């Protein structure tokens, strides 16, 4: 180890261990304060935090939000009678009550609320005396059989079948957009409270003979909030498993309790600091505290393991703690700094929810530098490991000598090339499968939830009973003031709609042109041949003057949305729509007519997919560059960097291949996993390489040095990798699918990063860092470690 490292560690060692009581008092006071602050932590959910606010699609929408409404943040409630159809007086009365209840929910854009009972759902027909129309439910409605017959006729004339009314007439839709800020309080809309209110409506009206099927972003968030309790349960399960395995590993109660306490202190500090900075946890970063705990345990095991080794060599508890601090401070600092800065590379993804996750993870890892590299050895300096644990460790070491001797063969000059060849095959397979990796959602409904969740069942009900799905892509068509009725503008929209209806995945297209053509047809005795745009400006002005058409353009007559109903929001569907719209806009945009993408929930998701597609490779380049530079600065060797980084890169590629096989796309919930896996996995390689380099500098040949590395650091690395994998694999049983997906991917990365450090690193060392003073023949003839 270099003189620089030694002097730095010696100074910090003296500063900390010569003032142990002061250090402990400082930690105690800081913990009390931050625990108090942590009680104020909040779990935040916001529609705008989930979307890329600076993407051109979202910028276009935000600039025109006052004229277009709330974008993709809508809720749809299908109200289905438990018996019969909607043409029943009791059903209609219940539907009216539900509509009134929804009207007063917090955050509802009441002017845009649509139901059979709202005045903006209208019918229109042509008679001998001209146009007639009005609300679908007439003012004379009284629930009688005659009123219900009139209602049926109005629904058939309104064009709402398949949109507001189910194709089989056995349910109808209440739909409403939400404001991001509650208009009544001016504060952010509380999605958990709104989702709870919707569930109260579901329970309330189930007793009155109707079933409610509710979909929309707010309901997804509400269901995810319910899953937060499950996340806490899984955290406790992981805590229990980790504690049990740590006790089995160390055989010492103190050596089990102290790392667990220090890791929990790190979590509490993280939550307290987030609260102090005015930040909170969202539905994705709520998983970060477990990762902080896992990283803390990982480094704690290394320190406990080293203290046990020094104690067995005869050191008293204080000396063992000081020597362990001196030996592990630099690799621990390097590993944790790599973790923290690596997590910060997620900031290149311009989505607030991922940025918050990056900040929360980086802050938590920074805290571990103090709690597990300083507090843990200070606490152990008083008690140390028990005599029974030392003897048990010695027996286990003797029992496992054959295991370590066998594994040390991985550094042998005949075995290492085979390992390199296998790794190259793994790289090739990962690169090949990476081309099959999809961006965005690959499943219908809400992929964050299980396929059999209530939400996805509700979504399946609505998509199965209505002609138009809940996946809406809105293209904004802009012109000059009072020009939206011009033939050129309306003809451009008409041609765009015709072209988009031929795109696979598009069910239907609706705009002001749709209504205008129906009106023109009506003005000509309903002859289908007249259902076309007229070049007569007076005819066009009249065609868009009715109330239905007026809902489809802004008050200045300069902006008209085209609503595309899509079969689903899968990545391929969205990309086809975006590509077709972009091609049409490139060919048809003029100074007078501009086609701009996009809003609606599908438009917002298309923007999110675009940001993730552009950022994923940049993020990986950044995280690997940061880790490589820090390793280079520490080890001052490009060969060392290759030995540490290559196993991580192999794991990343194989993880992406696994995502292809599991049908998991790269999206907001899964993109951070790779960065988190790299950040945690690099710890293994750093600890293994640091110890291996130390033994090589002592004059050992490679296999002997690696044998000693396995006996000391290697056993802790294997234990940590297996323990953390067992902890996160419990997530697979979570009711929240994105947590289950993260559990599978992190389990794989924890194990493979550990395997890479144990298996591939010594093989790379054979080619890159073997000592020059010992010939291959001498190495071959050296005594085999046993």
UniProtKB/TrEMBL annotation:
<feature type="transmembrane region" description="Helical">
    <location>
        <begin position="256"/>
        <end position="277"/>
    </location>
</feature>
<keyword id="KW-1133">Transmembrane helix</keyword>
<protein>
    <submittedName>
        <fullName>MMPL family transporter</fullName>
    </submittedName>
</protein>
<feature type="transmembrane region" description="Helical">
    <location>
        <begin position="745"/>
        <end position="765"/>
    </location>
</feature>
<feature type="domain" description="SSD">
    <location>
        <begin position="260"/>
        <end position="382"/>
    </location>
</feature>
<keyword id="KW-0812">Transmembrane</keyword>
<feature type="transmembrane region" description="Helical">
    <location>
        <begin position="415"/>
        <end position="432"/>
    </location>
</feature>
<dbReference type="Pfam" id="PF03176">
    <property type="entry name" value="MMPL"/>
</dbReference>
<feature type="transmembrane region" description="Helical">
    <location>
        <begin position="328"/>
        <end position="349"/>
    </location>
</feature>
<dbReference type="InterPro" id="IPR000731">
    <property type="entry name" value="SSD"/>
</dbReference>
<feature type="transmembrane region" description="Helical">
    <location>
        <begin position="361"/>
        <end position="385"/>
    </location>
</feature>
<feature type="transmembrane region" description="Helical">
    <location>
        <begin position="230"/>
        <end position="249"/>
    </location>
</feature>
<dbReference type="InterPro" id="IPR050545">
    <property type="entry name" value="Mycobact_MmpL"/>
</dbReference>
<feature type="transmembrane region" description="Helical">
    <location>
        <begin position="283"/>
        <end position="307"/>
    </location>
</feature>
<dbReference type="InterPro" id="IPR004869">
    <property type="entry name" value="MMPL_dom"/>
</dbReference>
<feature type="transmembrane region" description="Helical">
    <location>
        <begin position="21"/>
        <end position="39"/>
    </location>
</feature>
<keyword id="KW-1003">Cell membrane</keyword>
<feature type="transmembrane region" description="Helical">
    <location>
        <begin position="713"/>
        <end position="733"/>
    </location>
</feature>
<keyword id="KW-0472">Membrane</keyword>
<feature type="transmembrane region" description="Helical">
    <location>
        <begin position="642"/>
        <end position="664"/>
    </location>
</feature>
<feature type="transmembrane region" description="Helical">
    <location>
        <begin position="670"/>
        <end position="692"/>
    </location>
</feature>
<feature type="transmembrane region" description="Helical">
    <location>
        <begin position="618"/>
        <end position="635"/>
    </location>
</feature>
């Amino acid at each position: 180890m270099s003189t620089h490292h030694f002097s730095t560690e010696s100074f910090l060692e003296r500063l900390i261990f010569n003032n142990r009581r002061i250090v402990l008092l400082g930690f105690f006071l800081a913990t009390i304060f931050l625990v108090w602050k942590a009680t104020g932590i909040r779990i935040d959910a916001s529609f705008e935090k989930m979307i890329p606010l600076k993407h051109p699609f979202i910028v276009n929408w935000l600039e025109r939000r006052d004229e277009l409404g709330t974008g993709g943040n809508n809720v749809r409630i299908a109200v289905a009678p438990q018996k019969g159809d909607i043409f029943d007086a009791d059903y209609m009365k219940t539907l009216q009550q539900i509509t009134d209840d929804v009207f007063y929910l917090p955050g509802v854009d009441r002017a845009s609320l649509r139901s059979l009972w709202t005045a903006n759902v209208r019918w229109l027909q042509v008679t001998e005396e001209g146009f007639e129309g009005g609300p679908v439910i007439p003012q004379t409605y009284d629930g009688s059989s005659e009123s219900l017959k009139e209602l049926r006729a109005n629904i058939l004339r309104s064009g709402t079948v398949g949109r507001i009314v189910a194709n089989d007439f056995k349910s109808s839709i209440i739909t409403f957009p939400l404001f991001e800020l509650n208009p009544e309080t001016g504060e952010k809309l509380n999605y958990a409270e709104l989702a709870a209110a919707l569930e109260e409506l579901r329970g309330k009206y189930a007793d009155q003979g109707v079933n409610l099927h509710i979909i929309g972003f707010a309901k997804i968030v509400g269901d995810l909030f319910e899953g937060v309790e499950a996340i806490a349960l899984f955290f406790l399960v992981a805590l229990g498993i980790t504690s049990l395995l740590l006790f089995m590993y160390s055989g010492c109660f103190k050596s089990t309790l102290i790392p667990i306490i220090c890791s929990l202190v790190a979590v509490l500090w993280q939550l307290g600091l987030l609260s102090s900075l005015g930040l909170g946890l969202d539905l994705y970063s709520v998983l970060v505290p477990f990762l902080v705990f896992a990283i803390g345990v990982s480094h704690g095991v290394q320190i406990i393991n080293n203290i046990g080794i020094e104690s067995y060599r005869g050191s008293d508890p204080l000396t063992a703690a000081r020597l362990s601090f001196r030996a592990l401070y630099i690799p621990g600092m390097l590993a944790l700094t790599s973790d923290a800065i690596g997590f910060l590379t997620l900031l290149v993804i311009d989505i607030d929810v991922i940025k918050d996750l990056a900040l929360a993870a980086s802050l938590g890892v920074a805290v571990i530098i103090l709690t597990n590299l300083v507090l843990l050895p200070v606490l152990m300096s008083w008690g140390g490991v028990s005599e029974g644990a030392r003897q048990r460790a010695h027996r286990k070491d003797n029992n496992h000598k054959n295991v370590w001797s066998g594994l040390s063969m991985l550094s042998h000059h005949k075995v290492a090339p085979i390992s390199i060849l296998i790794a190259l095959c793994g790289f090739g397979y990962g690169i090949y499968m990476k081309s099959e990796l999809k961006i965005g959602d690959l499943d219908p409904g809400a992929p964050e939830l299980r396929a059999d969740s209530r939400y996805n069942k509700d979504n399946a009900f609505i998509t199965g009973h209505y002609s138009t799905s809940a996946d809406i892509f809105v293209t904004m068509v802009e012109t000059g003031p009072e020009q939206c009725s011009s033939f050129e503008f309306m003809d451009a929209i008409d041609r765009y709609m015709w072209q988009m209806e031929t795109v696979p995945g598009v069910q239907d297209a609706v705009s002001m042109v749709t209504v205008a053509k129906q009106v023109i047809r009506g003005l000509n005795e309903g002859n289908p041949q007249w259902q076309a745009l007229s070049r007569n400006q007076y005819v066009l002005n009249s065609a868009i003057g009715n109330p239905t058409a007026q809902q489809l353009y802004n008050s200045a007559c300069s902006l008209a949305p085209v609503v595309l109903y899509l079969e689903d929001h899968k990545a391929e569907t969205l990309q086809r729509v975006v590509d077709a719209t972009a091609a049409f806009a490139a060919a048809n945009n003029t100074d007078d007519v501009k086609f701009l993408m996009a809003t609606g929930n599908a438009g917002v998701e298309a923007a999110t997919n675009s940001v993730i597609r552009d950022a994923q490779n940049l993020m990986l380049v950044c995280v690997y560059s940061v880790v490589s530079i820090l390793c280079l600065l520490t080890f001052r060797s490009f060969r060392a960097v290759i030995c540490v980084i290559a196993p991580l890169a192999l794991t990343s590629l194989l993880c992406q291949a696994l995502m292809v096989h599991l049908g998991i796309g790269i999206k907001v919930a899964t993109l951070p996993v790779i960065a988190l896996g790299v950040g945690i996995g690099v710890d293994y390689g750093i600890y293994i390489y640091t110890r291996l380099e130390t033994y090589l500098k002592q004059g050992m040949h490679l296999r002997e040095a690696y044998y000693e590395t396995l006996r000391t650091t290697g056993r802790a690395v294997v234990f940590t990798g297996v323990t953390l994998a067992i902890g996160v694999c419990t997530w697979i049983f979570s009711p929240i699918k994105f947590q289950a997906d993260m559990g599978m991917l992190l389990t794989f990365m924890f194990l493979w990063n550990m395997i890479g450090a144990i298996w591939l690193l010594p093989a790379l060392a054979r080619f890159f860092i073997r000592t020059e003073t010992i010939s291959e023949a001498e190495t071959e003839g050296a005594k085999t470690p046993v």
